[in-house]
Amino acid sequence: MSNSDASLQAAAPTVSLGLRENWQQFSLLVLINAFVGGMVGLERTVVPLIGAEEFKLESTTLVVSFIISFGVIKALANLVSGQLADAWGRKRVLILGWLVGLPVPFMIMWGPSWSWVIAANALLGINQGFAWSMTVIMKIDLVGPKSRGLAVGLNEFAGYFAVGVTAFLTGYIASDYGLRPAPIYLGVAYAILGTALSILLVRDTREHVRLETAAHARQASPMSFREIFLLTSFGNRNLFAASQAGLVNNLNDGMSWGIFPLFFVSFGLSINRIGILKAIYPAVWAILQVATGPLSDRWGRKGLIVGGMWVQAAGLFLTAATSHFEWWLVGSVLLGIGTAMVYPSLIAAVSDASHPSWRARSLSVYRFWRDLGYAIGALSAGLIADWFGLSWAIVSIAALTFLSGAVVAVVMKEQS
After folding, report:
1. What CA–CA distance (Å, rounded) separates 184 from 353?
2. Is the N-terminal amide bond of 181 cis, ω within 30° of 0?
3. Per the omega criterion (within 30 degrees of 0), is the bond before 183 cis?
4. pLDDT by residue (tens digit) across 279-320?
């Protein structure tokens, strides 16, 4: 080896897999995903009420239209995010997601019509599809195959804890200062900090992928994106089971996002108490993922997914069947527990069934189906609410959630 080759080799950064070996970048990505989650938390309490009270929208379907635009655009952004990550690098896609998200809080604060809120949520969908996808993919890249559940659990903890905290804070601020603009100032801080940290401190993880691919016992033949889409959607039983469960999980989340504030306020509940209910669900979900993610590494994915879907269904049924804050609080806790069991287990199950060389693209297909559930859930729940009432919308989605868990119980096999 020549002296120049030796010096170049010495200068090259050492790449290794594992949480301990990459804790600084991993921790940075956890923080960044908290800001990503906070952008969604801005809307969980106040935006449905802005539509109903400030813009005087009488149709529930029109009120939840902002979630439909968010869900469709986020699903499509997820679909291309894996391709872009492999072609451009993870960091560039992360930064692009934040740049697109920068105008969102300003459009919600100052938009003169509901169409501005819908447009803001289209941009928010791109922000979430790119930025959230990259934080979870990069964490999986960093830790390697042994700790995927832990990596996903910590990623989703950060994002959804921020959703819960922000939902509570926006409700609290709105009760004193109104629905706009004061509660949305938090989003300005989230967007600026997330963009700055992504540009200045994040390092790409493609070398970690190459290292894992080289060490992988099974070498994969090159696959087109069409082949990966079909395999993830329908061709592999575990990937199909995960994709349909992910869709239904976010279907019920999209329903709760748009319908719950309207349902609670119909019983005369104050905005700050609605904020508490909207915060409890994602907060419980977030905190418990720190445990359920690693448990899925030890116990397997299937049992947590099936049980979690059924616990979600129980929480939704309880919410629809009662009319008091205390029971709604229990329902929100059950919904959070069930989602904590499901969410990291599903992402880890998709990672288990995917080869490292096409894992990012397979995850993007899974996340496409999962986040399309936001749009389907908001639209279907809005139509059912307009025709039959808010309670029936919640009950219908609860029944579908239970059925989805049964599909996983029948179809999915534990990965050896």
Report:
1. 40
2. yes
3. no
4. 898 889 888 988 888 888 888 899 999 999 999 999 999 999
Higher per-residue pLDDT: 401 or 11:
401
CA gap 66, 261 in Å, rounded: 14
What's the CA gap between 303 and 403, in Å, rounded? 15
* pLDDT tens figures, 124-158: 999 999 999 899 888 888 887 777 778 877 888 88
Q: Rounded to whole angstroms, how far apart are CA atoms 396 and 62?
A: 19
Of 144-148, 185-189, 338-342, the range with the lowest mean pLDDT is: 144-148
390/21 Cα distance (integer angstroms)? 50
From first CA to last CA, the distance across the chain in angstroms is 43
Q: Which residue has the tokens 């904590």?
A: 340
Band (pLDDT 50/70/90 cuts) for residue 363 is: confident
Neighbours of 273 (CB within 10 A): 17
Residue 56: Cβ within 10 Å count: 8
What is the average pLDDT across 77-94? 89
Contact of 326 with 190, CB cutoff 8 Å: no
pTM, two decimal places: 0.81
303: left (phi over 0), alpha (psi -120 to 50) or beta: alpha
Other CB atoms within a 10 A radius of the CB of residue 112 amount to 7
Helices (H) then strands (E): counts for the chain: 17, 0
Mean pLDDT computed over every residue of the chain: 88
**What's the one-letter identity of residue 312?**
Q
332 and 279 Cβ atoms separated by less than 8 Å: no
Q: Is 224 left (phi over 0), alpha (psi -120 to 50) or beta?
A: beta
Residues in CB range of 86: below 8 A, 6 or more apart:
360, 361
Q: Residue 94: which pLDDT band, with cuts at 50, 70 and 90?
A: very high
C-alpha 137/C-alpha 100 separation (Å) is 19
| CA atoms within 13 Å, Cβ hemisphere of 53 | 15
What sign for the dihedral angle of Cα 133, 136, 142, 148?
negative
